[in-house]
Structures are given as C-alpha cells and as structure tokens.
Amino acid sequence: xxxxxxxxxIFMDDHRYDPAEATYxxxxxxxxxxxxxxxxxxxDGKEAKFHKGMGLCSExxxxxxxxxxxxxxxxxxxxYSTTGDSKADNAQPLVMSYRGGKLAxxxxxxxxxxxxxxxxxxxxxxxxQTTLDTEVMANLIARQSKQGILKxxxxxxxxxxxxxxxxMMTGEExxxxxxxxxxRPLALGKLDNSxxxxxxxxxxxxxxxxxxxxxxxxxxxxxxxxxxxxxxAQSSMETALCVFEYVYFARPDSDIDGISVYRSRExxxxxxxxxxxxxxxxxxxxxxxxxxxxxxxxAESGIPYAKALAKNRYVGRTFIQPSQALRERGVKLKLxxxxxxxxxxxxxxxxxxxxxGTTSRxxxxxxxxxxxxxxxxxxxxxxxxxxxxxxxxTPSHDQLIGSKNSVEEIRRIIGADTLNYLxxxxxxxxxxxxxxxxxxxxxxxxxxxxxxxxxKETEALDLATIE
Length: 467
What we know:
Shape: globular
C-alpha cells in the first residue's frame, strides 16, 4: 500500500528560521508520506519563489535551497501520486497567478469528483497545466476571487467532494483548510510568535515548534501579520478520519486528533495477544510500522521480543522494480532474516497489513529458509477488502488478496502456520477518545461519502450558481 502526501506551511514573525529552511526541515520529517516528488514555495509579499522536482527532499533541494531563501511565508509538499501522473509537472506546491497576485497550494488527499469539475471548468475556458485535482481546487478559488480569498475558498468547499488537507499561500497570508469530514489529518503549531501547519505533529518537532491543536474538520485558518483567525466554513455531524493513519501511514511519534500513533499501534498488539494467544518462542515484527504492535503483543503475552528481520535502510520506499524478476527479489534487498535469532524457533510475526500478499509470502519463505520451525502471522488491522478513494493508492479489488480470499485461503497462499487479523471492533478501540469517527472503508466498504450520489450531483452542478 502506497503512502499519501505531506504538507507543511509556516508564517514567520521572527527570524529564528528562514521559511524555506524551516519548510525543508518540516518536509524531511514528513518524507514517509511521499517520496516521488518534493517542492517548496516562499514569498516576501512582493514575489513568490519556488523550487520542486522528482525525488526525495535531499535530492530535490541538494543544490537549490539557497535560491529560494528569504521572505516570511513558506509552504511545502512531499508527494505520492494518487490523482495525477508521477511526473515533474505534477510536483507541488502548485503556484499560479490570479487577480489577487500569486497563489500557491499544497494538497494531501483526493477529490472523487475532480474529473467532472475539471471538464466543467474547461468548458468555461479554464486551461490546466497539470493532471492534479489540486489545480481544480485552485481554479475554483481563482474564479471567485473577486469576492475575497475567504469566500472563494468557502465556495470551493461547497462543490468539491472527497478528502483534502490544504495549505495555501498568498502574498500576505498562510491559509490552512481541512475537509468537512476530516479524512486527512492537519495540525497547527507555534514557534515563538510564528505559526506552523503540518500533516503531522512530528514535523513541529523538527523545528522546535509546539503543537497547539488539530485543525478541525471543515475549518479554515487564516494567518497574517495580525495573527490567526479561524472560520468554521462547514460542519459535519459525522467525521471520518482515515483509521489507516494509525495503522501504517503516520509516524509513530505523531499525535493525530488527540491520539498517540505509537500508543494506538502498541494497543493493537495488546489486543491481538488477548484475542489470539499462541504458544511460541519469540515475537517479532516486519519493520518498521509494525514494531509498536509487536512490542504490545510481547508485553501482553510474556513471550520475548527479538528481531527476526533486518532492514536495509538504504533501499527505502523508492526502490524501483522494472521487471517481475526484480520485484520478486525486491523483498530480499529490503529485508533479510536474522538466522541466529529464528533458527529452530516458533515465531510470531506481526505486520500491519496484507495487501496483495506477495511480500508476506516472500517473508514467510525467507524465515523458513533461515530455519524457523513455525511462523505465525498476526496482522494489526482487519483484511483490506476494498480500494480507497480518498488519498491512499490502494490496488483495485482484483489485486487485493483480502477481497477474494478467506483468511484460511490467505494463510495457505502466504505459507504461514496460522494467520490472524485484528477485528474492526478491536482496531477502533485502540483509537477511542480521539473525539471523532473514522473512515474504515478499505476494511468494510463503508465509505464516508456516497460516491455515486456525489458524482451525480456534480454532473448536475452549474458552476455559475456557486456563491
């Protein structure tokens, strides 16, 4: 399962950091959310400078960060493509001119009705430079900008459907917007007298900023020289934060909507141990997102924790496998069995999810070749049975092993001695107290937006009537 994107923004009211430097550090902390491209845009109120390109932050800004220093506002983006091709033209932030000057946008999420809105905008004469749904949002804002940026954003929110955690930059303001269901996370921080916005709170730690609060679903935050103002543009009775943020996507040192990601994952392991006790010699994990769950399982079961797999830190998530043969070898390039730890042992192996099943099968095979006597797989989430439409690049139904196979069939396919998944009920108990509801559509097919209805309404929409 592929990551989403990460966004960052800062309004500087002192000179502790240059906005570009602060944004670079923030993006580095969010690199786990996307490794295809990275970009930074800054402004001093008179002109906007930006640089973006394909690759990791360290690659994109290796020789170019100095070219965009200066100014008082910066926004940045790391990307994994969900809507829009993986190419340099689609790297963000998106920087454009409109009647109010320069506008820059960075977006995490996915609009389910973007293609219909794009077609309607093109019929009115809009020209698009990218295949991003972010550009659809930018055009909707620009066409209403004579009413002021706040009303323009509010008008955009009335017609787009899906998920968005959005940071925007004008010449004088940093703006943050979270979709009315709160599907994608977005947080507010403060650095002395400066304000910071980020997809995850771990980005604040990178620049010694303090976490203030999560941006509320449907909220617009406007930050300028006069301070911060909040506007509740839309309210929803039911929120739908993506629960997979806690399972896999977010960094373990982040807090999202009041819940520690690490503690949540640790509790997943605890509940797995309570639901599925196994007589074994050691507990281990598929590094790294499953490590807290393995720790929780070991503590609850009393079975020692030890590393069964060593991870090659230099392969990373950007390893490209252009052929089936290399894809088959890719797991061994990234992971290798710790033979001295697993030989002759009955092993409980914790992973966060099984998507296609190919990786799990290779890992089980690798551990058996290393001498493991038994391999018991424990998954700290339910079976993934449905694709995501809200910003996670999940495969289609026919590629999801959980969509067409029972747990016992999956066990036989991957070659484990036993296979157990955490139930949805137990998963949701690990995030109790978040003060919000969750989207678990990939686990149960219950999406927070009626997709067919949203598309039908968009087809009937007259953009001229938007206020």
